[in-house]
Write a structure and sequence with these properties.
The termini are far apart. Helices cover about 40% and strands about 20% of the residues. The chain has 6 helices and 7 strands; from the N terminus they run βαβαβαβαβααββ. The longest helix is centred in the last third of the chain and has 23 residues, at about 115-135. Helix 5 runs antiparallel to helix 6. The protein has about 160 residues and is an alpha/beta fold.
């Protein structure tokens, strides 16, 4: 492992865990979120040290991470506690498909896996384009929900609700 890049990473959410596994960088991960379900093997292989809005800071520090990766301002208190303890923290805040693709590329660059990250992002872009193309062929469906909870849906033949 290249010593210029983090080798002991704690992932406070599922996303970095999933991306790092996809990039073949799972050996760098030393702790994960309790909400991680993908990849399934991560739950068997890595200790769970956080939820989304809380973390076991003492357990994280005991893992001696050189990078902690989180998401959103909701994790600001966790990040602050770790930073005050001398840990490098990267909190992302992606909110769109383009943001997610950029996140994959940035995370890959942070761990020295920029090329695999670029390949993975291109695979994701291709898959997204295929899904969009297939979805464009589906008939539009309109759904109406009333105040009493009753609903009705129907295919739209002329672009208007029926």
């Amino acid at each position: 492992m290249d010593s210029r890049y983090p080798s002991r990473i704690v992932c406070l959410t599922e996303e970095p865990t999933e991306v790092l596994y996809a990039l073949g960088q799972e050996d760098r991960i030393v702790g994960i979120s309790g909400f991680t379900v993908r990849p399934a093997r991560a739950r068997r292989e890595k200790p769970r040290v956080s939820a989304f809005t809380s973390a076991k800071v003492d357990r994280i520090l005991a893992l001696r991470p050189d990078l902690v990766v989180g998401f959103s301002d909701i994790q600001a208190d966790i990040a602050q506690a770790l930073i005050k303890s001398g840990i490098e923290v990267w909190i992302s805040n992606h909110r769109s498909i383009d943001g997610i693709l950029s996140y994959v590329r940035r995370l890959g660059a942070l761990v020295g896996a920029a090329e695999p990250a670029e390949r993975y992002a291109l695979e994701l872009e291709t898959h997204i384009a295929q899904v969009r193309q297939a979805a464009a062929l589906l008939p539009a469906v309109h759904a109406c929900i009333s105040k009493n909870g009753m609903s009705r849906s129907s295919p739209a033949s002329d672009g208007s609700a029926s």
